[in-house]
Design goal:
single chain, 344 residues, alpha/beta, 6-stranded parallel beta sheet, globular
Length: 344
């Protein structure tokens, strides 16, 4: 089969690799129909996160080809979607909806084979995969579904961590796919006003199209006074940080109102410790973590099915699998927000 291969920073190839097979009785093999390139894949591409030569990618939709003998809920031919990490489903953390804390959890393309491929072996398949109500997935539907695997689930988790509720004013820090997802999720959670901060006009337009207000700010400037002016002299109740860099984290802590809440889902890289006095005096609550995408997937799928959710504006180009290098390059230079790869 064909698979996207990380050769070295800045170099993505598509290679022939062995076809996956069922190994453990709880495995299935899925023929992948569509797979996504995530912003976090760019950290590997840019050499910012160590990654050995090999497969990459963690977002996919596909069709079950083969099932292990202990698989109970899946059948060959089922169309399925995967969260960005697998988990075993029976531990206490999985039952609490905290699948990233499962002792058997792993991320495709990091702890397992990459999902930017024509097929993949899925462990703990019953607990990991979600059956979709469509037999056939075309490109338009794939653009609505692939964001649910990671970026939209992560944005939803950011809104949950920040405690966004009815009547809140929310600021989102970050204009990437996760940030725009968080802005959409905040509105879905009942926020009356959502303001997204970023520095790329094309991405701010996508956020505006999704219903958010936007404010263009550079990464080197404090947004506090500009936000206060825009919000009529006040600061937001909740802030969702979606970048993971020091400047974004500082902006989130500075811009939230006293006794407000910051939820952070940008994976911290190069962020220093938070002095307790920085949050103690203003009574700021801070919560962050890896999104339990498997927990959110059923509800998000139902909303797509019933027309309440359409995250397809996050995906602005679909490439063939053999064009993966072009997709990475386009996301890396910022000319597109998010790419999806079609495997057939």
């Amino acid at each position: 089969m064909r698979a996207v291969w990380f050769a070295e920073p800045g170099r993505i190839e598509t290679r022939e690799v062995p076809d996956p097979q069922v190994v453990d009785p709880t495995d299935v093999v899925v023929d992948i129909l569509f797979t996504g390139i995530c912003g976090s894949d760019l950290w590997t591409y840019r050499g910012l996160v160590p990654h050995g030569e090999g497969g990459i990618g963690h977002e996919f939709i596909g069709r079950v080809r083969q099932v292990g003998r202990d698989v109970g809920t899946l059948r060959p031919g089922d169309t399925v979607i995967a969260p960005f990490l697998f988990s075993e489903g029976d531990c206490e953390e999985c039952r609490r909806g905290l699948q990233p804390l499962c002792g058997s959890a792993g991320i495709w393309g990091k702890d397992w084979d990459g999902a930017q491929a024509q097929a993949i072996r899925v462990p703990h398949a019953d607990a990991t995969l979600v059956v979709l109500p469509w037999e056939d997935i075309d490109t338009d539907l794939a653009r609505r579904l692939i964001p649910l695997c990671d970026v939209f689930a992560t944005g939803t988790h950011g809104a949950a961590l920040a405690g966004v509720g009815s009547g809140d004013t929310v600021v989102v820090v970050g204009d990437g796919a996760v940030g725009i997802s968080a802005a959409m999720a905040a509105a879905r959670a009942g926020a009356v006003r959502v303001l997204l901060l970023g520095d790329r006009p094309d991405r701010l337009k996508v956020a505006e199209g999704a219903g958010a207000e936007t404010l263009r700010v550079s990464r080197d400037e404090s947004p506090v006074e500009a936000v206060r002016d825009l919000l009529g002299g006040r600061l937001p109740d909740r802030v969702i940080e979606c970048v993971g860099m020091q400047g974004a984290f500082d902006a989130a802590l500075d811009v939230v109102r006293p006794a407000g809440t910051v939820g952070f889902v940008g994976v911290p890289h190069g962020v220093g410790p938070i002095p307790p006095a920085r949050i103690f005096g203003r009574q700021i609550r801070v919560a962050g973590g890896v999104a339990p995408a498997r927990h959110y997937l059923p509800g998000l799928i139902d909303d797509v099915v019933n027309g309440r959710l359409d995250p397809s504006p996050l995906v602005d180009r679909v490439y063939g699998l053999d064009e993966a290098a072009a997709g990475y390059a386009a996301m890396d230079d910022g000319s597109i927000l998010k790419a999806v790869l079609r495997t057939t």
